[in-house]
Amino acid sequence: MLQSKALQTIGFTVYYGMLVHTPNFGDLEVIPNARIGVDSRGIIIYIATGPLMTTIEGEAQSYDPSVQSISVVDISTFGFKKFFIPGFIDTHIHAPQFPNCGVFGNSTLFSWLTKYTYPVEMALEDPLKATDVYDRVVQKTLSNGTTFCAYYATIHTTATNILADCAFKHGQRAYIGRSCMDCAKKEYTDHGLEDGMQSTRTVIEHVKKIDPDYSLIKPILSPRNANKCSPDFMLWLAEQSREQNLPIQAHLSETEDEVEQILKMFPNCKTYTEIYDSHKLLTENTILGHCIFLETEELKLINERKSSISHCPTSNSCLTSGEARLRWIIDSGSKVGLGTDISGGFSPSMLTTARHAVLVSRHVAMKTKSDHDKISVNESLYLATLGGAKVIGMDREFGSFAVGKKWDCQLIDLDTEGSPVDLFDFLNPSNEGLLSGDPSHISKFQDLIDKWVFNGDDRNVRKVYVNGRCVLDKD
Fold first, then answer.
1. Strand, helix or coil at 311?
2. Where are the transmembrane segments (predicted)?
């Protein structure tokens, strides 16, 4: 039976050091010298702040007298240089495209799909190639601090099942989506509706077999685009979503050409969003990738259906697809997260995606001449963590630090060997200043967070925790 790093037996552990998270949109909360008690289920039992009045063990037993054996992970001596922050949540990523990261030339979406994407995806029909690619993409995203991925795979059932195995084995939370395409190019399509339905069932059954409770991985129904999935297939997928309580993911309004072409195929629908809605695919569990060229009525419909949006700024820049009006979408009340959209996006790093979300918003602001359209670093970090958790419907389980949530996080070291983040003593905050809540020292730490977002990379990620278990330890 397949074993997972995120389901190994653990004891009660207290994590002692700095916590950094965004419990509200735009608000960065910094908690120095926190003590976080995590039980054998990986759930946060308490978060103690302020001076430590007794031993860590004694404090833990004051919260739970039954606790006997206690492990301690102490990073407090490193002060502001090391901190725990929630794991990143990638709400839109194409796992089979990982070999093509950084390869897009002068392509736009359609030419890029034909020249680069479909050939490499078809190659993964070979299980050996699929194993190589999927093992690498899971390890690479984990190495960048991503504890959850909403994956698209290919049309191939065996390869998609391999992706599920890899995510489960390495301890990464994931949605596993077989690309549903029964009316795409003949070189890359399901062999009719029945084949598409059966292939989807096969993947669902495989995920249930290795993770019956969906504790780490879960199938996600993935009609790739409205023009690549027949109406009957879309309606069937919507039915499966309702009956089995499975999430849905699809692409929406990525380029103007795409919108124009798809609307010609559905003359009875006024908008691209209406196409999905007419096929019952807009639900509270639906993730819509890109959403660059939305009309106001489309955004209203998405919000009425309580569907979510995955903003993919890196990909949209690389393929010159367009600049999503992120502030407009957020102001409407939409649930929004970030996606790397490998390999339209060149990097598996959500930190890179977060910084590009900031930059793309500034390009929008240059056009609108409104500073309101700019997204701050703290807002971008929220979208990469708790915002993403809301998109996947798991914000009560992780995405920020709170009692009752899972210990899903990453340990960041700003001063690790070879760190791309340069620290200068005369600009650094002091631990005493942070502990006392001195505004000037909090401001200096905010500057360090900004530096990390714009200069940091996977070298700064030292440990990754999922479900309370350390699934990656670089030290």
1. strand
2. none
